[in-house]
Predict the structure of Apple domain-containing protein.
Amino acid sequence: MDGFGLHFNSGNWILLLTSFFVLCISNWWSSAAEASTVPQELLKGFKATPNPSVSSFQPLLSDSNGNYSLGFLRVNKNQLNLAVYHIQSSEQLWYARTPGLTRWAHSTELFFNGSLVLSDPHTGVLWSTQTDGDRVWLSNTSNLQLQKLDEVAILWQSFDFPSDTLVENQNFTSAMALVSSNGLYSMRLGSDFIGFYAKFNPGTDPGQIYLKHKALEAKAAIVKGQGPIHVILMSDGYLGMFQTGSTPVDVQSFNSFQQNISGIRRVRIEPDGNLKGYFWTGSSWIVDYQAISDPCELPSSCGSYGLCRPGEGCSCLDNRTEPISGGCVSSENHISGDLCRAYDNKYKVLRRSGVELPYKKLMGYKKMESITQCENACELNCTCWGALYSNSSGFCYMLDYPMQTLVAVGDETKMGFFKLREGAGKKKVGTWLGLGLGLLFGAILILGGVIGLFWYKLRNRGVKGYVDEEGIGVGPYKDLGAASFRSIELCER
Ligand SMILES: *[C@@H]1O[C@H](CO)[C@@H](O)[C@H](O)[C@H]1NC(C)=O
Ligand SMILES: *[C@@H]1O[C@H](CO)[C@@H](O)[C@H](O)[C@H]1NC(C)=O
Ligand SMILES: *[C@@H]1O[C@H](CO)[C@@H](O)[C@H](O)[C@H]1NC(C)=O
Ligand SMILES: *[C@@H]1O[C@H](CO)[C@@H](O)[C@H](O)[C@H]1NC(C)=O
Ligand SMILES: *[C@@H]1O[C@H](CO)[C@@H](O)[C@H](O)[C@H]1NC(C)=O
Ligand SMILES: *[C@@H]1O[C@H](CO)[C@@H](O)[C@H](O)[C@H]1NC(C)=O
Ligand SMILES: *[C@@H]1O[C@H](CO)[C@@H](O)[C@H](O)[C@H]1NC(C)=O
Ligand SMILES: CC(=O)N[C@H]1CO[C@H](CO)[C@@H](O)[C@@H]1O
């Protein structure tokens, strides 16, 4: 001790140790208290930022039973969703639909000033309820509400802005859409049907319809002019379609229909475009409904340019390739716009017989004399990505998005013509060329630098000190070296 010049007597040590323990205990105490007292309402002035040490969910508001919580849910490592969470199952029942990604960073802030606002200093307001309320409250059915205190008016509720999930007794109206978490698929209501749409072409809205469930009207009929329909997930175990009153115009019953289920129910539009129903047993969710039961009937079960054989699974439209994750083709042919720009209108053609669209009954078509006529119509039209033709009916279906999964059928007179954007090969050549050019350039620059330096040194032998001080002789050489290294780095990417 003396050697280091420090003098501690035993009293100092005890003081230090005690204060250390007090600090630890108070820290532990405050974090334990924080965890156990998630508030049941948020009032004006509330502010929260994501805690960097939370790895999954940071609760901010709880319902009266402690079953649900509003909080920050960590997604993709460093992003967040403002979500309503079922705590026991860690299932997200609702999330705020922000236009872009929200970072799990100290700068991201949720506050309540009458509106519940999610903001970030870089982009400003990311999401807001745009209300002038007094408190934020979470119902025991997972409905997040903004209320006015005096007349208990509800100014805003999450049930009016569903994400991908509906819970029991939530009213789904024709003004709403249920959208899958990947943004590809949506469920919407028509005048007398539930429609499911795929956004395979980002320029179209709502996109390609792939499933249409029309009301059966067994118990009550839809009356024109009596207003739009709405859909409610009923506690009895069915998806009920209603127009007026409580007699359904359509009932889609689940496997657990009219069984005594004590737990809650939910339906969700899945990332594969299916709609599934679940009930909670107290420890897990059980699937008791699927809108599409045959995987080949899903809009893209085998990914882009995939082929689904009922009962057998996935292969590729081009039988020389094997399916890889996300489909059978390079990313240039994944969902994107048209082939109308000059550079894009270079493609190769793929043909396959014995194939058809899983949702062809919902597609528009043109009648044509032959497959050649159908192919030509698609070939001459840069918004067309492919065409399917049935020789027996003469129907020609043209698609304005990259091919998704087709279904294999025994009938070889059902034929397809598909465009494949040529990108992958070109890109590889480009990379090699870039690397070569980069190396050449780098070498020339280094050589130039060395010669320059050599020349400079020869010329300035007499005034060496002056050059070094100004850094003229050395600086450019270093810069050139760094630049050439950077160009190599870029090329290797
Ligand atoms: C709450 O904050 C947002 C974002 O800063 C602002 O646009 C809004 O006007 C504020 N609302 C009230 C009631 O102050
Ligand atoms: C949920 O809250 C309502 C009143 O808002 C109450 O009638 C009902 O019993 C509560 N349910 C549960 C399971 O606590
Ligand atoms: C559901 O919403 C529709 C349209 O807003 C409305 O007419 C209907 O009464 C609502 N039903 C229930 C049970 O809340
Ligand atoms: C379901 O429960 C109700 C009362 O909780 C009871 O009257 C009914 O018989 C039960 N039904 C079945 C199928 O168990
Ligand atoms: C692939 O398909 C082509 C044309 O549809 C056919 O001629 C060829 O025999 C097939 N090859 C294999 C390995 O199945
Ligand atoms: C298509 O149908 C026509 C008559 O409708 C027939 O002549 C022709 O052979 C058929 N082509 C194929 C490939 O089956
Ligand atoms: C081109 O194809 C699209 C569908 O892909 C279709 O809507 C459009 O009418 C076609 N244009 C012409 C000129 O045929
Ligand atoms: C749906 C759900 O999780 N319900 C639970 C809510 O909390 C009570 C106890 O507080 C449980 O009994 C419910 O199962």
